[in-house]
Amino acid sequence: MSTFFTVGDARADGPRVAKIELHGMVTGSMASFVDDQLSQAWRAGYSGVILDIDLNGGSDDAAQEIKSTILARSADIPIAAYVHDRALGPGSLIPIACKTIAMSPAATIGGNAGAGQPVKLDYKATADANQRNNAIAMAFVYADNPWPNYGVLTVGSAMTLTTKQAQAVQYCDVVATDYPAVLQKMGLQNATIEPIQFNFWTAAARWIAQPWATILLLAIGIALVILEMLTMHSWGLAGIAGGIIVLLIFAAHIAVGNGSWIGLILFVAGLICLVFEVHILPGHGISAIIGLILITVGMYFALGGSQGGGWYTVAAAMMTTVGIMVAFFIYLPKSKVWAKLGQPMRQSASAGYVASEDYTEFLGRSGTATTLLRPSGTAEIDGVKLPVVSEGEFIPAGTSVHVILVQGNRIVVSKNG
To answer: In 3D, which of 261, 240, 239, 241 has the Cα closest to residue 250?
Structure first.
């Protein structure tokens, strides 16, 4: 069982109401989070729950999961929605599932929730469950056909209500500027509100699982891992940092219920294939193709699959990674940062280590690249095949090269001429 927060026995200390914040986009991780919190609040004897809502966009499937959880728990514990800013798109289904809907004076609800008859019917059934006008609920869904004129605002092809308009059509039970007004409407005016208290890891995991944070961190992590495999024969600080970042992202999504272990396993298998391609048997390409497929599919499942918008996150992270890699190969090889990337985690004579082989005799000599240097690969220098790395550029196989730098077991070459 997840332990997102710790609660005591609410029965012994008078009425208490748990406040659960639902902010951002509706995701699979949010659905798992709501299910866990409502279950624990009920077991701990809380007198009610307020869902503090500020939602815009997300997954219709995840919103339907949250709706089902709320309807199932409403028989055990009163649940109120407090829309203090907005409940738009799929997020509009969540307050409809609550017995009590409170809105701040400047809030909005509705607007382009999914599309198609199945979604409309789900909104209709949810409104019927709480005896609200189901035509209004269906109008929140992207409209295939016009709906009756209720004198309300519209966004795109779906209805959006202001607080005043929602109150007029009974989709706002109380206009509330603060929580006491919500408690009074719930009949719990003497209750104490207790915000959910998260442990450090859970708070961090929820932050990491936000789409923008996941995309940015994942792009940085993947870029560091790729750069490590391309530029070093030993695993250095960049690769370790990148691996930790990627694993941390996957762990966060698994912790909040958005990802699966199968995704992590596939991702690691893909990395192994890439390492095999780059460092063990470079040039044939099969391992690289299999590795990239496994990594892509692994990220999809590790980041929530269809429920958590996995393809969107993977695509956005990949595009960001490409941007980072382009910047690296255009700028970094010419800067001091390039030299620093090659130093950490490498044994050197100046640090008291002795290289297993001494390649200094090849300094200044010429030879031929026997594999594509991207920028690491193999070259034949004076009849000896050696692992080499270019200064950052890709050098085709068969190109004449010469050794310009030797650092322990690291041999740097550049094109002749």
So the answer is: 261
Residues of the chain with CATH 3.90.226.10: 13-195
Which part of the chain is CATH 2.40.50.140?
A: 349-415
Instruction: Say whether the peptide bond before residue 148 is cis (omega within 30 degrees of 0).
Output: no
Sign of CA dihedral 233, 235, 236, 239: positive
| DSSP per residue, 63-124 | HHHHHHHHHHHTTTS-EEEEEEEEEEGGGGHHHHTSSEEEE-TT-EEES---BSHHHHHHHH
Correct CATH for 13-195 of 3.10.20.90, 3.30.230.10, 2.60.40.420, 3.90.226.10: 3.90.226.10
pLDDT of 149 over the 60 cut? no
Q: Which residue has 């209500």 as its token pair?
A: 161
Q: Which CATH architecture has domain 349-415?
A: Beta Barrel (2.40)
pLDDT for residue 262: 82
Asked whether the predicted pLDDT for residue 376 surpasses 80, the reply is: no
Nearest to 284 by CA among 276, 295, 296: 276
Beta bridge partners of 377: 388
Q: Which residues contact 409 (CB under 8 A, 6 or more apart)?
A: 233, 234, 355, 356, 357, 359, 387
Greater confidence, 217 or 322? 217
The tokens 């719990």 sit on which residue? 188
pLDDT band at 68 (very low <50, low <70, confident <90, very high): very high
Give the H/E segment covering residue 401. Answer: strand 400-407
Q: Read off the pLDDT of residues 211-254 as tens digits, 9 standing for 90 and up.
A: 778 778 888 887 787 777 665 445 567 778 888 888 888 888 77
Helices 237-255 and 200-208, axial angle in degrees (round to 10): 100
H or E element at residue 162: strand 158-162
